[in-house]
Amino acid sequence: LASSLPRAVIALDLDYFYAQCEEVRRPEIKDKPVVVCVFSGRTEDSGAVSTANYIARSLGVKSGIPIAFAKRILKDNQDAVFLPLDMEYYETVSDRVMDLVRSTGDVFEQASIDEAYIDVTRKSGLDFQKAADIARSLKTEILHSEKLTSSVGVASNKLMAKMAVDAKKPDGFTTILPGKEREFLAPLPVGKLFGIGPKTEQKLEPLGIVKVGDLAQADLKILTNLFGRKLGPTLREMANGIDTSPVVERPIEQLSRIVTLKQDAQVFDFQEVIRALADDLSEKLVASHFTCSNVGIIAITSELKIRSRSKSIGSQTQSADEIFQIAGALFSSYFHELQEGGLEKEHRLRRVGVKVTGLEKAEKRGTLEDFV
DNA sequence: AATACCGGCGAGT
DNA sequence: TCATACTCGCCGGTATT
User: Contact, A350 vs A304, CB < 8 A?
Assistant: First the structure.
């Protein structure tokens, strides 16, 4: 009953995307280490590395490390280039590429700014040679139109297509034929399976589950006890190369904005910051014709603990004032909670954010002229 | 008992 | 060493019906 019909799925991943976008607009940096940074503005080099090109990666610079650390690694490399994130530009490039990808498949699903899946079951007639040809020409088209290299994976479902993409990059091309899924996965360390991170890996290790092949045969009861009634069984399915989730273009379901404060604040004057975040979110909602029914706040403490509070509102809104009112109230009550709890330490906040969920497409409203 | 909501955690780009 | 800005999904607990 749970079996899904045979499919041909392509996963596409634009290589080291932000850094490659920077290389495209400034070709002279192509043979240098390029590091795209999110400067938090606390000090000169505070912040984290978002993406680096492969020259920088080969020297040890990777996503998530502090900018100061990256600079130390590259201190003897006089031609290393550190650039600030320019999301607007990357989004513009991404939108053009995604239009191309969308038009290549029967069904399209964008997974992130630089990743997408397409179902090509119909277009390929389930002939994997044909599916691979489609993937190959998509790669070529992206290279010609945008000068961007990409990696692709062709397989029988989204999970396996993703595992295929990850098998070889940059500029990779990997096909996993139907029936060869378990053979491909079995020798990999469990941590390489998409969805299994450090925490899950640590929980599996004491059970002697270190390879995906081990997980594929693990006891269902043990997995269910450890990971819950949904996730436990799913993990074993994944390890067997099974993934019935369809390729579907899904509307966005949440939006958030978060900033790092100039300094950790005990009782910070949040009015201004939260106002700005709320305005930004409202603008984004209006521009994308969405409304939201839930407003939340995010607080990251000095100890990097994440705290959140949220509130459903009875109706759909996209008003900056309303979002700001609710976010402000949530911060107020959060502070009161902390004071009553006497958690002095937790008072210090490093980053604060606002989040809206319960997104729905806004009814197309008449323009002002319709009313006068 | 089923469903909805909430806050925390984990994973990924 | 210092530690961004997002998005999505699941879990357990609690409230609502």
Answer: yes
Provide the β-strand partners of residue A296.
A310, A355
Q: How many CB atoms lie within 10 A of CB A348?
A: 16
**Helices A231-239, A220-227: crossing angle, 10 deg rounding:** 130
Q: Helix A270-287 and helix A320-341: axis angle, to 10°?
A: 140
pTM of the model: 0.95
pLDDT digits (tens, 9 = 90+) for A238-286: 999 999 999 999 999 999 999 999 989 876 677 899 999 999 999 999 9
Query: Do residues A356 and A288 make contact, with C-beta atoms less than 8 angstroms apart?
Result: no
Q: How far is the CA of A308 from the C1' of B7 (A)?
A: 6
- Report the run of H or E that residue A327 belongs to, with start and end: helix A320-341
Single-letter amino acid code for the residue at A129: Q
Amino acid at A133: D
A22 is catalytic: no
CB of residue A17 closer than 7 A to nucleic acid strand B?
yes
Distance from CA(A352) to C1'(C2), angstroms, rounded: 19
What letter represents residue A73's amino acid? I
